[in-house]
Design brief:
The chain has 435 residues and is α/β, with parallel strands linked by helices. It has 15 helices and 15 strands. 37% of the residues lie in helices and 15% in strands. Helix 1 packs across helix 4, helix 8 runs antiparallel to helix 9 and helix 14 packs parallel to helix 15.
Length: 435
């Protein structure tokens, strides 16, 4: 049993949350907190005389009694850009590790930075990890691994949780069909647009989708069998603004979803409009539950995420795992980690019953926001995946049925997806051969 010697000043929810993540979630250790007079936090093991001083939390965790403000996190810059080494001496850490981890996981900066894009999303350019050019490196995973080495060196007989590279492949279904079920007027408009663009390929596929039933977006054509741990998020909202109705009342759509549920795990893709409306969100989940049974996982359409309000709505709707933690404009690690972690509500100063699963790369980000071509995208994905592999993290990607359809602007992007899976398998096989 690990003992945490902690002054009553630091016996607060944020500290307990961070210790539970570091020692319990990541290292698999059972621990108990013991009152101490010393102003620092230290660890000891039953039956051992030695201890490890984690230091006095002087960063974010010491500031939570104050109102959240810009000044608090600006002072934290030097800590976030700290050297790789964690240890001052064999019995003392060099940096305020607990505050560093809590700063990233709690998304502290998203509470204190007001600027948002037109969809109300926090911008990657305003994050400290982006400013310090660490967004594409899962720095929390690195810190945890370095701390693991410190623990293993100090107490070599202590059994820690295994740590291995894993993959999760996810798909968002914004619209289940290109033309099937859509009004003939809308399809004709698109066909005329294809003609004006001299796009014979798109014209042909769109025409076939409407008049022969061979629709490139159809759920039955999703390459699920090639994926490791496939997870598909379905939108059930009505047609409103940024939400494209995917005909959830059509019988053929229901049959397609039920068939898909036999091939992959299904989650809810809350619509753009339901992000602000709990009743609407619950209704969308109810519609999907009626097709495939209870769903507990989600990712918000357009990656709309207002912290902590969105998290609270998901908890109230009985969602247990959310996959929205990532950026639309940039690839990388929004919370500094590739691995799942529990949400923390800074406004209420308490952890939430919601697991956050980060993703690090999205097809739309690569092509539309970063302007990469297919070959450049392959290299970017491989580099990210190699980085995650290097910290024994979890590589989670986000794709859409449109980008895998070989239709229109996505004509060459199925190769990018296939290359990603090939590289995944190579790393997983390498991992298996090393164990």
């Amino acid at each position: 049993m690990v003992q945490i010697h902690i002054n009553e000043r630091f016996q607060k929810p944020a500290v307990s949350y961070t210790l539970a993540y570091l020692l319990g979630n990541q290292l698999g250790l059972r621990f108990e907190q013991i009152p101490a007079k010393d102003q620092s936090i230290s660890l000891s093991i039953n039956g051992h005389n030695s201890s490890l001083n984690l230091g006095k939390p002087h960063g974010i965790l010491s500031m939570l009694e104050r109102q959240l403000d810009l000044e608090s996190w600006q002072d934290f810059n030097a800590e976030l850009n700290a050297p790789k080494a964690l240890v001052q001496t064999e019995s003392e850490l060099k940096i305020d590790l607990l505050s560093l981890i809590f700063f990233c996981l709690s998304r502290y900066e998203e509470y204190v930075v007001d600027e948002r894009d037109e969809h109300g999303r926090f911008l990657a350019k305003n994050s400290l990890l982006f400013k310090w050019q660490k967004l594409q490196f899962p720095i929390v995973d690195h810190w945890v691994n370095e701390f693991r080495k410190v623990i293993q060196a100090k107490w070599p007989h202590l059994k820690l949780k295994s740590n291995a590279f894993t993959c999760v492949n996810t798909l968002d279904i914004d619209q289940a069909y290109l033309a099937k079920g859509k009004p003939i007027s809308k399809v004709i408009y698109r066909l005329v647009t294809d003609i004006l663009k001299f796009d014979c390929y798109s014209f042909s596929r769109r025409f076939k989708a409407k008049f022969t039933g061979i629709d490139p977006f159809d759920l039955q054509f999703l390459p699920i069998e090639q994926m490791k741990n496939p997870l598909v998020f379905l939108q059930m909202g009505n047609n409103s603004g940024f939400d494209q109705n995917i005909w959830n009342e059509k019988e053929y759509f229901k049959k397609a979803v039920i068939a898909l549920s036999n091939r992959a795990e299904i989650g809810i893709h809350p619509s753009y409009s339901s992000n602000q409306n709990l009743d609407e969100l619950k209704n969308e989940i109810k519609l999907l539950n009626e097709m495939v049974g209870p769903v507990s996982k989600s990712r918000n359409h357009f990656l709309k995420l207002q912290i902590p309000q969105t998290w609270q709505k998901l908890v109230n709707a009985n969602i247990s795992d959310d996959y929205t933690m990532g950026y639309a404009h940039e690839i990388g690690f929004r919370a500094g980690t590739s691995k799942p972690f529990s949400a923390f509500d800074l406004e209420k100063n308490e952890p939430l019953n919601l697991t956050i699963v980060p993703f690090c790369v999205m097809d739309v980000t690569l092509k539309n926001y970063l302007g990469l071509d297919a070959e450049q995208a392959k290299k970017a994905i491989e580099q990210l995946m190699n980085t995650v592999y290097g910290v024994n993290g979890q590589f989670c990607s986000l794709w859409h049925n449109e980008s895998l359809s070989k239709f229109g602007e996505w004509k060459n992007w199925f190769d990018v997806y296939s290359n990603m899976l090939k590289h995944q398998n190579a790393l997983l096989n390498k991992n298996a051969s090393n164990t």
